[in-house]
Amino acid sequence: MSADSPRPEVRLKGIAAAPGVGQGSVYILTQGMAIVACVRAVDQEAEVRRFEQALHETRLEIAKLRQEVVERLGESEAAIFDAHLLVLEDVALIDDVTKEVRKTGFNIEFCFQEVAQRYITIFENIEDDFLRERASDIRDVTGRVMDKLMGTKSAQAVVAVEKQVVVAKDLTPSETASMSTDTVLAFVTQEGGRTGHSAIMARALEIPAVVGVRGLLDAVQDGDTMLVDGEAGLVIVNPTSATIDSYRDKQVAIKSRRNRVMAEVALPDETTDGTHYNLLANIGSPEDMEDAHTYVAHGVGLYRTENLFLRLDDWPTEEQQFDEYAEVVRQAKGRLVTFRTLDLGGDKKLGDLTDEANPFMGYRAIRLCLDRPDIFAAQLRAILRASVYGPVAVMFPMISGVEELRRAKEFYQTIAVQMASKGVVPKAPIRLGAMIEIPAAAVVIDDLVAEVDFVSVGTNDLVQYLLAVDRGNQRIASHYEPANPAVVRTLERIFSSAAKKGVTAAVCGELAGDPLWAPLLIGLGATELSMSSPSIPEVRFILRHSSAKELKLLAQAAVALGDSVKIKNLLADFALSKVKHRS
Ligand code: PEP
Ligand code: MG
Fold first, then answer.
1. CA 410 to CA 405: how far, in whole Å?
2. Mutation to probe ligand 1, out of 343, 464, 480 (largest number of atoms < 8 A from CB)
């Protein structure tokens, strides 16, 4: 190919991190610390003092950035900067740097870079995804300190982006936080996963993003253009005009569809023939309540209470839990908040307690709570205290059978009696429920529904345990197939058992927020669907344009099929008929 012939279109697949489509010229972010000279320090103590001053200035800078992020995105997104401040307080790191200066006699910039790189390498080589991603926190903070020492501005490089697609090996949380939809059209990284802070921030900022794109940096160069499909996890380098045109149409269609579904967002949750159901929000923090109201959730169907523990990366006190829970209940303004009791373990690790060889099959959720009455009691007391401000429900995760459920209920009752004797009176009677996400629970569902006011199906885990497919393992992702007939028939069994007993049947796994699946779930007998709030408008639209009768027929047809491809086609055809019918 001659030097001036156009570069060909190249398609790369990565992990879909934040939905939307962005297209434009690339801005390749060159990261990593600047090359620093290694020189002999004239005065070692003066070098140490310069380092202390740089640490101090960086602390102030991060505290300021944290405040800005609190105002823009809320407290939970800003918690990332607490981790950064901890790096700056890390006694081992600071000691290692000052020792290095005194031992080698070299300048502080060089010594700091040596030590920081050692720490980054250690974290980068850790097996655990969560800890490995902390390497970017250290890189972020040390980059800022280096800027102070050298008078450079690498950490703010992203500010230079002008309506471009940012391409980087990896992005630090503060680089992502300094992005705005006014300048950054999308971003793509070679490293990273969906659980990384950058991916989490991209979703909050509504910037389309794809992460974990192998070979990305070899495939792009300055002057290239790029189209990023954050929903499909697809990156197209130098898209042809035909590709751009097809995406332009896609974007227009997405926008007009969103407007159409948003126009009905405040309408009642009922089918065309008047059957009611409830659409609720999945939340992880008080800040998520804003979206819940925007998209008119009729309460919270799943409050992932472990998120507070993960954000703090520590065990919160009862008081800290109470403060957060009370805030959520107040913000719910009289609508029900369903607290899921602590579901640590699995991929949600906290210290050594949940560090084990086979975590998804291990010391997780209700197992941990029943084994640690101190932790469980503190959480239940905090929930009961928050229940004074508005209606709440409590559900227990990972219930495997009736004995375990009874133990959880008895423990709860003991704490409830203690709190009542102290004058803590819930605003409304507290309903108790069990999550159905272990196949054993689905098998004995008739016994479980006799014990509770509601059940809520955690399809994320139910699918993984029913099919024996780790939900987080990329290599076997194609085996994680919710349309497997075993899943559909298990769901039918759960809902019909709940209906016979007059118990509310909810779904709070990701399938509830999927417009292909919601009609089937309601047709099979679910009466509540809880999902991330931005999913509500689509789901509300499709259900409001369906009759209970046709949803039931859809469910009967799905249950009769013994083939996942046919089930998927059935669901897709149904959804398409609703879209076409109304366009
Ligand atoms: C589920 O398993 O479907 C669920 C809602 O819980 P989590 O995703 O938190 O395990
Ligand atoms: Mg679960």
1. 9
2. 343
268-300 b/e (C-beta count within 10 Å ≥ 16 → b): ebebeeebebbbbbbbbbbbbbebbeebbbbbb
d(CA 242, CA 207): 24
At 115-170, the pLDDT tens digits run: 888 888 888 788 877 777 777 778 778 888 887 887 665 544 444 567 899 998 87
User: Which residue's alpha carbon is at the smallest distance from atom 1 of ligand 1?
Assistant: 458
Q: How many CB atoms within 10 Å of residue 477?
A: 12
Nearest to 438 by CA among 355, 511, 354, 367: 367
What pLDDT, on a 0 to 100 scale, did the predictor assign at position 34?
46
Yes or no: is domain 264-579 CATH 3.20.20.60? yes
Task: List, by residue number, the catalytic residues.
Answer: 197, 508
Radius of gyration in angstroms for the set of CA atoms belonging to the chain, rounded to a whole number = 26
Cβ contacts of residue 191 below 8 Å, gap of 6+? 169, 170, 211, 212
Give distance in angstroms: CA of 509 to centre of ligand 1. 5
pLDDT value of residue 155:
47
Q: What is the DSSP letter of 408?
A: H
Element (H, E) at 105: none
Domain boundaries along the sequence of the chain: 10-25+162-172+179-253, 44-150, 264-579
**Band of residue 302 on the pLDDT scale cut at 50, 70, 90:** very high
Residue 509 Cα: closest atom of ligand 1: 3
- What is the pLDDT confidence band of residue 4, given thresholds at 50, 70 and 90? low
* Residue 348: its H or E element: none
d(CA 548, CA 115): 64
Which atom belonging to ligand 1 lies closest to the Cα atom of 464? 2
Highest CATH level, class, for 44-150: mainly alpha
What three-state secondary structure class fits 50? helix
CATH of domain 10-25+162-172+179-253: 3.50.30.10
Cα angle, residue 504 at apex, residues 273 and 449 outer, rounded to 5°: 140
Q: Which residues pair with 13 in a beta bridge?
A: 234
Indicate if ligand 1 lies below 6 Å from the C-beta of 298.
no
Helix (H) or strand (E) holding 26: strand 21-28
Q: Which residues of 78-94 are buried (b: 16+ CB within 10 A; e: fewer)?
A: bbbbebbeebbeeeebb
392 CA → ligand 2 middle, Å: 20
Alpha-carbon span 203 to 288, nearest angstrom: 12
Q: Measuring CA to CA, how many Å separate 456 from each of 214, 275, 423, 441, 495?
A: 38, 20, 30, 12, 10
Give the predicted TM-score (pTM) of the model. Answer: 0.70
